[in-house]
Amino acid sequence: MNPDHYLYLSALLFSIGAAGVLLRRSAIVIFMCVELMLNAANLAFVTFARVHGQLDGQVVAFFTMVVAACEVVIGLAIIMAIYRVRRSADVDDAHLLAK
Amino acid sequence: MTGEQVAFWVLGAIAVAGALGVVAARKAVYSALFLATTMISLAVLYVAQGALFLGVVQVVVYTGAVMMLFLFVLMLIGVDSAESLTETIRGQRPAAIAAGLAFGVLVIAGIGAAATAGSAAKPAPTLAGPAAEIAAHGNVEGLAVLIFNRYLWAFEVTSALLITAALGAMVLAHRERLTARKTQRELAIERFGPGGHPTPLPNPGVFARSNGVDVAALLPDGSPAVLSVSATLTPRRGERDAT
Fold it and tell me: What is the pTM of this model?
């Protein structure tokens, strides 16, 4: 099977995730869309590893997963900290510098 | 059609539908479940491409740990908090959709151009040199050889990153107790003072028709006992009438 199809799927998922980051207001959903983009990038890495017949791409995808896990932990903790102060997880409400 | 093609078209469709669901779902919990769907189908696609280890890690780390964390925070923040529909920036929604579409077209067209230019001339890749030697051991062993030899330094730095993330989460989620904890003596004085309630609170109602913690018990005169329903249930759906 032509591995290009996986790249198209990856690009499609990445674009949907990017559009979601722009569209949604809830910080948690924005975060989920970021995760979607990371997953799409991982799919591209795995596909390129297969195209080139080497495992290095898979190692990079593995490291991406580790970094994404750290990012989720810290990001959700920040969202919770903001929620405690502002009583809202809406990104439009977090405008402390504007006032 | 080979088995991989069938898997790709079925799971690819499911993954895209899940991704659209993440963006379009009204409630954040639905978004989380759609995202889990997409991640599981991606895991199967990894396995289909020969990345067995990554497929398993995807299920364990992403659909297991990360999505659990998402749902955990969702429950803490409040599942019911609706997203505000007022537009802070005028025309942001159509602009965002247009930007997403344009970006997608750009990337897919780029891949298409590269694919038509490159793949026709290039022969199918064959394993050569050390890669073939590594791959002969199988996916997991091959990855282990790479991670613990060539990428050992990155792997060690990763552990430092994980520890830092754990510490950061503890610092960010930590909350100082602002007032001193009440002693038993103070609690007893409060309970027996005016406005206190010295006995345990009454149980919620147990009736033939309805038997739930959100139904108030009846007092001897037939009126509902307000104290028998937990205060946290009241704002959610109100007390149901027992009579």
Answer: 0.79
CB atoms A76 and B38 under 8 Å: no
- Convert the pLDDT of each residue in B114-138 to its tens digit: 877 765 545 555 555 555 556 666 7
Mutate to test the interface with A, among B29, B47, B62 (most CBs of A within 10 A): B62
What is the least distance, in Å, from the CA of B181 to any CA of chain A?
A: 21
- Per-residue pLDDT reduced to its tens digit, A29-55: 999 999 999 999 999 999 998 888 888
- The conformational region for residue A19 under phi > 0 = left, psi -120 to 50 = alpha, else beta, is alpha
pLDDT of B225 > 70? The answer is yes
Asked whether this complex has an ipTM greater than 0.90, the answer is yes
Q: Please, which residues 14-53 of chain A have a Cβ atom closer than 8 Å to chain B?
A: 14-20, 22-26, 28-29, 31-33, 35-36, 39, 42-43, 46-47, 49-53
CA distance B63 to A65: 12
Q: Which of A6, A46, A53 sits opposite B54 (nearest CB)?
A: A46
